[in-house]
Amino acid sequence: MNISNDTPALNYVEYFTKQLPVDLATMAALRDELAIRQGALSAAQDAVADRAKAAAELATAKTQAAEMVAAAKDKNDKAKVKTDELAARETELADQVKAFETSSAERDTALTIRENTFSTRERRQSENQTRLDVLEAKLAEDQASLDARVKDFQAKVAALKA
Predict the structure, then answer these.
(1) pLDDT tens-digit profile of 53-78?
(2) CB-based burial of residue 19 (10 Å sphere; 0-12 exposed, 13-18 middle, 19+ buried)?
(3) Fewer Cβ atoms within 10 Å of its own Cβ: the N or the C terminal residue of the chain?
(4) Cβ neighbours of 20 (radius 10 Å)
(5) Which residue, among 4, 19, 40, has the nearest Cα to 27 in the 3D structure?
(6) Are 23 and 1 spatial neighbours (Cβ–Cβ below 8 Å)?
């Protein structure tokens, strides 16, 4: 289509039959190309917006990850302190158990010695009691014998006086 008006007048019939379909085809191709370019431009704008959004999300994720790492390090440090405390307590408890077992063994030994001493003393006391019982019986017998002899002697003395 000529719009500069530098050519002679147009033959409309020839234009409509020959040139217009070509111009319409060219315009349709241009329209399609413009739509493609517009779509590409929209896609590029969307991609830029998506990149900006992704960058913001990445920054947020990095911040959250840094916070998580810091929290994990803090928890790990606390766990290490607790582990060290528990190891110290375990060592202290093991020492206490060993000390208790040692003192318990000493007490058991002392108790065994006391029991043996008690048993020995009880046995000796029983033997002494048996001996005392025998001596008491002998004493009673000797006393009865002496009393009988004294009566005999008194009877003889009384017989001599009479």
Answers:
(1) 999 999 999 999 999 999 999 999 99
(2) middle
(3) C
(4) 13
(5) 19
(6) yes
